[in-house]
Amino acid sequence: MATTAEPISPSNTKLGWIGTGVMGSSMCSHLLKAGYTVTVFTRTQSKAQSLLSMGAHWVDSPRSVAAQSDFVFSIVGYPSDVRHVILDPTTGALSGLRPGGVLVDMTTSDPSLAAEIHAAANSAGCFSVDAPVSGGDRGARSASLSIFTGGEQSVVTRLTPLFDLLGRVYYMGGPGKGQFCKLGNQVTIASTMVGLCEGLIFAHKAGLDLSSYLNAISTGAAGSKSLDLYGARILDRDFEAGFYVNHFVKDLGICLRECQNMGLALPGLALAQQLYLSLKAHGEGDLGTQALVLALERLNNISLDPTKSDSKVEKEV
């Protein structure tokens, strides 16, 4: 391992990676391309095949990952998964990490769990940083993610050479503050996605050409990252997940619980969560967040699909 005074580099640092889903696989690939030795774990080995073909080494538990690594990154689905892969006393990463090692959880999770992991790591002579990301699958592929970090600033600074391979890092404060920043990010995105989809529904009903409409508003005050990432996908009926509805519902649920703890009323957040829940109820939880338009189409008994007229939708319903 690099000493605290020695910059991190492929020659002195071994990395571990837990979770190779839509985001994790692309993120880990950047570390491999930079020349780092990376040990990976995922519940289904075949899902790590692309990384293994790039030179990564697969092991059968998070503990085994940590035993061979100086820094262990994780990006999994739910807080329960985070707790299992990091804190499980038998198979968790912390149980295999050497003193001085660093855990970096990039999952969107509970701020309280981030603080718990930080305390457990400190007790074991290790370090922990919460570092959830924003930017979706495209940001992961292009290494242009926003990375929100919480923990000791000196540890985050030390990690910067690695974070720079994934995107741009922002230090938000102590343990859990990275998670709080990501939750605020999700609150903002939730209402932005509702606005994007409602605008499309309105423009369609008004008889506008939707491609021209999106092009027109994208350069004005209505322009947004969500519009840039998802506007064309919605028109193309491309609902493949860059970020799963199921995971967004999880994130918004965490936001609402934190709001309750803070005594906050955020009605836009609550409305968005209900609309996304309706997608889950229709079996659409594995679609991307841009599938929100489907809920609004059903609500208004219309379709933006150019192969369907609104009259056909009415007959189908």
From TrEMBL:
Which part of the chain is the 3-hydroxyisobutyrate dehydrogenase-like NAD-binding domain? 176-294
Q: Which residues form the 6-phosphogluconate dehydrogenase NADP-binding domain?
A: 14-173
Signal peptide: which range, if any?
A: none
InterPro entries in alphabetical order: 6-PGluconate_DH-like_C_sf (IPR008927), 6PGD_dom2 (IPR013328), 6PGDH_NADP-bd (IPR006115), HIBADH-like_NADP-bd (IPR029154), HIBADH-related (IPR015815), NAD(P)-bd_dom_sf (IPR036291)
State the organism named in the record. Abeliophyllum distichum
A Pfam family per the record: NAD_binding_2
**Active site as annotated:** K182
Name the Gene Ontology molecular function terms of this record: oxidoreductase activity, acting on the CH-OH group of donors, NAD or NADP as acceptor
Whether Transit peptide counts among this entry's keywords is no
Name the chain's protein.
3-hydroxyisobutyrate dehydrogenase-like 1
